[in-house]
Amino acid sequence: QVQLGEFGGGLVQPGGSLRLSCAASGFPFKNVNMRWFRQAPGKERELVAFISSSGGRTVHAGSVKRRFTISRDNAKNTAYLQLNSLKPEDTAVYYCKATVGQLSYWGQGTQVIVSS
Q1: How does pLDDT run across 42-98, given as a tens digit for each residue?
Q2: Is 94 exposed, middle or buried (0-12, 13-18, 19+ CB in 10 A)?
Q3: Gap between the Cα atoms of 72 and 34, Å rounded
């Protein structure tokens, strides 16, 4: 059974940092590309970052480039998203996604609120 669980969100002041984690189980994590998405209130879910199965290739959305960093530890079956220099507009629920074969799986999300 594929399971994804995000954690690490919270309330942070503008300019602060958070590290989100996505713990995976039920599939060969080291063979699967991973993605982080976010969905702000009243907005569509958007892709934030991508990392290849080996971790050798990463892509970040323009709005978060040089502030957010995606990474992974295949030994721990975990993907990460480091959020630095946070802005109020980064407030959203953050989700990780894995596509295994023809099926896509999502975690339950973790809330990030950036506010003073």
Answers
A1: 999 999 999 999 999 999 999 999 999 999 999 999 999 999 999 999 999 999 999
A2: buried
A3: 9
Q: Which residue has the tokens 């995976």?
A: 24
Scored b (16 or more CB within 10 A) or e, 3-25 reads ebebebbeebeeeeebebbbbbe
With H, G, I as helix, E, B as strand and everything else as coil, classify residue 88: helix
β-bridge pairing 46-51 and 103-106: unpaired
Per-residue model confidence as pLDDT tens digits over 11-30 = 999 999 999 999 999 999 99
Output helix, strand, coil percentages for the chain, rounded to the nearest 5: 5, 55, 40
> How many beta carbons lie within 10 A of that of residue 54, not counting itself?
11
